[in-house]
């Protein structure tokens, strides 16, 4: 006995599975010479857009079907009988004029049916255009170790046919072509060459696009690896105050380690912005120093600073290199003098100043009385402010409750440790959570 | 762990109670392996997950094949050449009459064959399709390994050798289909069979789960008076 076809819980796509073996009308197909009920010609042709086609469907003699028992569909839609012609007792043709590009890249489905709708045979039509030359080839090398190139296809997107791209390269003065193997590393039209690259000698690079209708080759780009070098962002970016100067901050960083012996002519760029703004100011004339002083800043304000590096002139290259990514933002604040009170929201400003002063007192105390607390300081507080800025969830809360400590790092540090507040700070009016978390983190580092 | 009725139950119960209440039991070197019950549950969960994934994959794939393949009531003929996956549609009594071992082995073989066939599709289709196929194949690989785990934990041997088609020949890259349209039909049936296999496997594993005791804890006892 057999279960009902639509048993409860059976999946709905494309229709519930039936446990009855599906045997269509016409029974089983006989073995050679006729493996299949019908044959279509041409089988899986490739055509240019706008061309015309006459296809024929010839039914196997074992099927006892005549030409007038057949009909055609293209992509599921029935073709008009006016375009049919019987070429023999068991052969029906269809004429297709001015074909459009294929509806899907797997080919248009031209199907020959028997009168009851059963499928007798099918042919995939590939209608499209030959590819266009790929353009805009750009390449870069990370620390002279590899080469990544990207390009754009000639037409807006892929043509109606699947297009294969192959990046090739060769040394200018030697004959052998090489083929790039690792595709899609930096987007859909990109390739990565991981090794065996020569310096001080030019390469020729080009991209070949091919589809069923032909091949197109891009223009050849010539480059020397040393002219397209990029590197990592500068590490160890530190931003600190310049004594008591209210309008200045000092930025220091290290040169990127991978190229540190070669960066005599490297250039750096700094960009900075005020905490609440999204507008970055760029400092361009940093040269190849690894420190810089920012001036003309607003007092008592938190700034976010980023640095990047361009390995210009590496190994004597005359060309500009490629800028690295920006370093992660580092935060610091300019001092606020006691006198300057006008202009800003007095309440908020005052609270900020009081809080910062007390925080600094606290951190000073912690450093004296606790071990391993070197990281705990006003800088850590500023870094936390940076994190707060980034976190969308807490953005609204910054205004209302600035000291909601949702950072997992803070929560993690505080968990499980209970420390009583020292006598000197008991009278301070902080929110309970701030006190708890800061003090337990002090306790944690005391361990 | 096989327990003979009567003699060991008392000790076993005591040990379990002791294990739950003491943080450390120095007299006992206890290793808890993933018992067959948990393996089966995991396999069942994975099967249901794949069923869900298949819906999305099939949608994308059938749209790539184009109409009429992606039409809801599409039902092309099945042609008699080397099947890429054993048919899931067999007589239910026959299926239920198999031993657990035979059923598990059939599942293992079927999904291994499907995995081979799907992997052969790699490189075709849009980027989105390739991405979905890759993800699905990873999950399917997990299912094959999971079934192997269940078989091993129940003490059954794994089916040997690489998967072969019923005719004895290995599956050629285009699945034996001589033209692109027939290959599309094969792909359609592969997905449909896979859907049925997953649906039925879920039932199989659910039934198997009920046969096997829930938590089989293996205790290896060092000599210390027990």
Automatic annotation (TrEMBL), chain A:
Keyword Signal: yes
Family: Belongs to the type I cytokine receptor family. Type 3 subfamily.
Alphabetical list of Gene3D superfamilies matching this protein: Immunoglobulins (2.60.40.10)
Gene this protein is translated from: CRLF1
GO cellular component: CRLF-CLCF1 complex; external side of plasma membrane
CDD domains xrefs: FN3
Gene Ontology BP term (one): negative regulation of motor neuron apoptotic process
Compartment(s): Membrane; Secreted
Species, as recorded: Strigops habroptila
Protein name: Cytokine receptor-like factor 1
Matching InterPro entries: FN3_dom, FN3_sf, Growth/epo_recpt_lig-bind, Ig-like_dom, Ig-like_dom_sf, Ig-like_fold
Domain Fibronectin type-III positions: 133-228, 233-337
Chain segments carrying region Disordered: 327-351
Ig-like domain sequence ranges: 37-112
Protein's membrane topology: Single-pass type I membrane protein
GO MF, any single term: cytokine receptor activity
Entry keywords, A to Z: Disulfide bond, Glycoprotein, Immunoglobulin domain, Membrane, Phosphoprotein, Receptor, Repeat, Secreted, Signal, Transmembrane, Transmembrane helix
Automatic annotation (TrEMBL), chain B:
InterPro entries: 4_helix_cytokine-like_core (IPR009079), Ciliary_neurotrophic_fac_CNTF (IPR000151), PRF/CT (IPR010681)
Principal location listed in the UniProt entry: secreted
GO biological process: B cell differentiation; cell surface receptor signaling pathway via JAK-STAT; ciliary neurotrophic factor-mediated signaling pathway; negative regulation of neuron apoptotic process; positive regulation of astrocyte differentiation; positive regulation of B cell proliferation; positive regulation of isotype switching to IgE isotypes
Compartment(s): Secreted
Similarity remark: Belongs to the IL-6 superfamily.
Gene3D superfamilies: 1.20.1250.10
Taxonomic path: Eukaryota, Metazoa, Chordata, Craniata, Vertebrata
Alphabetized UniProt keyword annotations: Cytokine, Glycoprotein, Secreted, Signal
Molecular-function annotations in GO: ciliary neurotrophic factor receptor binding; cytokine activity
Name by which UniProt lists this protein: Cardiotrophin-like cytokine factor 1
Cellular component GO terms held in the UniProt record: CNTFR-CLCF1 complex; CRLF-CLCF1 complex; extracellular space
Function noted in UniProt: In complex with CRLF1, forms a heterodimeric neurotropic cytokine that plays a crucial role during neuronal development. Also stimulates B-cells. Binds to and activates the ILST/gp130 receptor.
Description of how the protein assembles with itself and partners: Forms a heteromeric complex with cardiotrophin-like cytokine CRLF1/CLF-1; the CRLF1-CLCF1 complex is a ligand for the ciliary neurotrophic factor receptor/CNTFR. The CRLF1-CLCF1 heterodimer binds SORL1 (via N-terminal ectodomain); within this complex, the interaction is mediated predominantly by the CRLF1 moiety. The tripartite signaling complex formed by CRLF1, CLCF1 and CNTFR also binds SORL1.
Position of the signal peptide: 1-27
């Amino acid at each position: 006995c057999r279960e009902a076809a639509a048993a409860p819980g059976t999946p709905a796509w494309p229709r519930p599975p039936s446990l009855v073996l599906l045997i269509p009308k016409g029974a089983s197909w006989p073995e050679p010479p006729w493996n299949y009920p019908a044959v279509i010609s041409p089988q899986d042709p490739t055509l240019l857009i706008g061309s015309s086609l006459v296809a024929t469907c010839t039914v196997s003699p074992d099927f006892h079907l005549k030409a007038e028992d057949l009909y055609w569909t293209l992509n599921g839609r029935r073709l008009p009988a006016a375009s049919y012609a019987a070429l023999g007792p068991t052969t029906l043709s269809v004429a297709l004029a001015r074909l459009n590009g294929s509806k899907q890249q797997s080919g248009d489905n031209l199907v020959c049916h028997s009168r009851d709708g059963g499928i007798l045979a099918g042919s995939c039509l590939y209608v499209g255009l030959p590819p266009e030359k790929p353009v805009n080839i750009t390449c870069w090398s990370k620390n002279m170790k590899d080469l990544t190139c990207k390009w754009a296809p000639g037409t807006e997107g892929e043509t109606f046919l699947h297009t294969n791209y192959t990046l090739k390269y060769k040394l200018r003065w030697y004959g052998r072509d090489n083929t790039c193997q690792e595709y899609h590393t930096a987007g859909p039209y990109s390739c990565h060459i991981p090794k065996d690259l020569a310096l001080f000698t030019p390469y020729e690079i080009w991209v070949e696009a091919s589809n069923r209708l032909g091949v197109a080759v891009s223009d050849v780009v010539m480059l020397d690896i040393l002219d397209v070098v990029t590197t990592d962002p500068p590490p160890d970016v530190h931003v600190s105050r310049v004594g008591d100067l209210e309008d200045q901050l000092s930025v220091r960083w290290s040169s990127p380690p991978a190229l540190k012996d070669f960066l005599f002519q490297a250039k750096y760029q700094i960009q900075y912005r005020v905490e609440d703004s999204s507008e970055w100011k760029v400092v361009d004339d940093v040269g190849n120093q690894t420190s810089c002083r920012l001036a003309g800043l607003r007092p008592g304000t938190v700034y976010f600073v980023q640095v990047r590096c361009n390995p210009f002139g590496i190994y004597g290259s005359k060309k500009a290199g490629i800028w690295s990514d920006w370093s992660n933002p580092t935060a610091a604040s300019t001092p606020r003098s006691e006198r300057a009170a006008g202009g800003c929201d007095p309440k908020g400003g005052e609270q900020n100043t009081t809080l910062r002063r007390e925080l600094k007192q606290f951190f000073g105390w912690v450093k004296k009385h606790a071990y391993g607390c070197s990281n705990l300081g006003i800088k850590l507080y500023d870094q936390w402010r940076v994190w707060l800025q980034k976190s969308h969830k807490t953005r609204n809360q910054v205004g209302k409750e600035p000291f909601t400590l949702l950072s997992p790092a803070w929560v993690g540090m505080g968990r499980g440790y209970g420390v009583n507040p020292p006598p000197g700070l008991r009278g301070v009016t902080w929110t309970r959570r701030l006190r708890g978390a800061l003090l337990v983190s002090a306790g944690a580092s005391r361990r | 762990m096989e327990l003979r009725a009567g003699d060991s139950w008392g000790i076993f119960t005591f040990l379990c109670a002791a294990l739950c209440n003491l943080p450390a039991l120095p007299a006992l070197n206890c290793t808890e392996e993933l018992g067959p019950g948990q393996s089966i549950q995991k396999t069942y969960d994975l099967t249901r997950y794949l069923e869900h994934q298949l819906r999305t994959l099939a949608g994308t794939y059938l749209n790539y094949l184009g109409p009429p393949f992606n039409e809801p009531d599409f039902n092309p003929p099945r042609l008699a050449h080397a099947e890429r996956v054993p048919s899931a549609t067999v007589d239910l009594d026959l299926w239920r009459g198999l031993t657990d071992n035979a059923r598990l082995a059939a599942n293992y073989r079927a999904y291994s064959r499907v995995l081979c066939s799907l992997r052969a599709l790699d490189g075709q289709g849009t980027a989105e399709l390739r991405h979905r196929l890759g993800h699905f194949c990873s999950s399917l690989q997990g299912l094959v390994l999971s079934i192997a785990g269940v078989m091993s934990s129940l003490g059954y041997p794994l089916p040997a050798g690489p998967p072969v088609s019923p005719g004895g020949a290995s599956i050629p890259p285009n699945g034996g289909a001589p033209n692109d349209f027939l290959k599309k039909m094969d792909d359609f049936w592969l997905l449909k069979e896979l859907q049925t296999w997953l649906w039925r496997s879920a039932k199989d594993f659910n039934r198997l789960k009920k046969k096997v005791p829930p938590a089989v804890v293996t205790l290896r006892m060092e000599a210390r008076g027990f």
